[in-house]
Specification:
By secondary structure, the chain is an alpha+beta fold. The chain is built from twelve helices and 16 strands. The chain has three domains: 86 residues, Rossmann fold, CATH 3.40.50; 61 residues, ATP-grasp fold, A domain (Dna Ligase, domain 1, 2-Layer Sandwich), CATH 3.30.1490; 191 residues, D-amino Acid Aminotransferase, Chain A, domain 1 (2-Layer Sandwich), CATH 3.30.470. The strands form three sheets. Strands 13-12-9-10-11-14-16-15 form an eight-stranded antiparallel sheet. Strands 3-2-1-4 form a four-stranded parallel sheet, sandwiched between helices. Helix 1 links the parallel strand 1 and strand 2. The longest helix has 17 residues.
């Protein structure tokens, strides 16, 4: 166990590391950041130590490891060589195997299939001939996804009845890709929870997600789904966590089909955008659970005390890269909470922050959140 004031090392310098640092420091931990971002990154703004270097800089990594007691990652796309070097020197939670499995779609899909966990039928391809065979077997529509380092819809292409496969493959040539059968879902849900060193779990529940341009737009918690869908989603999360021998906070994104079946889409081995509502609406939020699990401490009560809706704030609504919007629509609402990530410059589709609205009912929270969203010009 690594109780306060032990030092938690975080690989990565983005907003997830920032929110983890805020919660861990409030509990008395010290924080060290290792990132390839420039100095003053979102996580580094709340760190005791910030080391800025490429992930393959062994000298800088050694300096980082000498300052920490335990290490976690705030995003999964850390090079495998770096993860392996960290785990050889200090406890890494989640571990190397969980991270390298979930950072790579081919390995992730093979893991799900081998564990008997429901996911979309898929094929792995590395050339146009393989793509043609995969599409013939899976049918149209289907989706091509890069095998490695994809997120928020990056590295994806939908294949429809009119798609020219040679043209579609031109964006993937030279790389392995996963081709997935298209799932005609009625809604998207996710489950965020934590698993401790001894296999104990604390799960926040099932939330409903709405995406725009493949980026999460609105999260509604709890999800407006029936108890059978809720149970399937929670059971799938438990199966993924156990199969990975996971330690830490993890999200599993899923599709719900018209006949009420739940299918795993992707695994995020870290706190997740769809779990940000937990900061304001749960007794123990996803970042508090992350440092508890990583440090080997007992998990907290993950239950939700208030219905909530979270809305992402992307750089699209900034008047200019360095000028903030007028936050009055959020600040004037007595049960709305504004969270900004400290990023220096706004860019289109860049996650700059979020706001959460609490309500006596989910319908009230959603109505108020959508009104604020419109007032800020989101989706206009």
């Amino acid at each position: 166990m690594f109780p306060p004031p032990s030092t938690i090392g975080i690989l990565g310098g983005g907003q997830l590391g920032r929110m983890l640092a805020l919660e861990a420091r409030r509990a008395g931990h010290r924080i060290a950041i290792f990132t390839d971002e420039p100095y003053g990154c979102p996580a580094g703004q709340f760190a005791d130590h910030e080391i800025n270097a490429p992930y393959d800089d062994s000298t800088a990594l050694t300096r980082f490891l000498q300052q920490v007691d335990v290490v976690t990652a705030e995003f999964e796309n850390i090079p495998a060589d770096c993860l392996e070097a960290v785990e050889a020197f200090k406890p890494l939670r989640p571990g190397f195997q969980a991270l390298v499995t979930t950072q790579h779609r081919e390995r992730e899909k093979n893991f799900l299939r081998d564990q008997g966990i429901t996911c979309a039928p898929f094929r792995v391809v590395d050339d146009l001939k393989g793509l043609e065979a995969a599409v013939a077997e899976l049918g149209r529509p289907c989706v091509i996804k890069t095998a490695a380092f994809g997120y928020d819809g990056k590295g994806q292409a939908k294949v429809t009845a009119d798609t020219d496969l040679a043209e579609a493959w031109s964006g993937f040539a030279g790389a392995r890709a996963v081709v997935e059968q298209w799932i005609p879902f009625v809604c998207e849900v996710s489950v965020v929870g934590a698993r401790g060193l001894r296999g104990e779990t604390a799960v926040h529940g099932c939330v409903e997600n709405q995406h725009t341009h493949h980026i999460l737009d609105v999260t509604i918690s709890p999800a407006r789904v029936g108890p059978q869908v809720m149970k399937q989603a929670l059971d799938l999360w438990e199966a993924v966590a156990a199969g990975l021998n996971y330690v830490g906070t993890m999200a599993v994104e899923m599709f719900v089909t018209a006949d009420g079946k739940v299918i795993v889409n992707e695994i995020a081995p870290r706190p997740h955008n769809s779990g940000h509502y937990t900061i304001d609406a749960c007794r123990t939020n996803q970042f508090q659970q992350q440092f508890r699990a990583v440090c080997g401490m007992p998990l907290g009560d993950a239950s939700q005390h208030t219905p909530a809706v979270m809305v992402n704030l992307l750089g699209d609504i900034w008047p200019s890269p360095l000028k903030h919007p007028d936050w009055s629509p959020v600040l004037n609402h007595p049960r709305a909470k504004l969270h900004l990530y400290g990023k220096r410059e706004a860019r289109p589709r860049r996650k700059m922050g979020h706001f959460t609205v609490l309500g006596d009912t989910i319908d009230q929270a959603l109505e108020d959140a959508l009104r604020i969203r419109a007032a800020l010009g989101i989706g206009v």
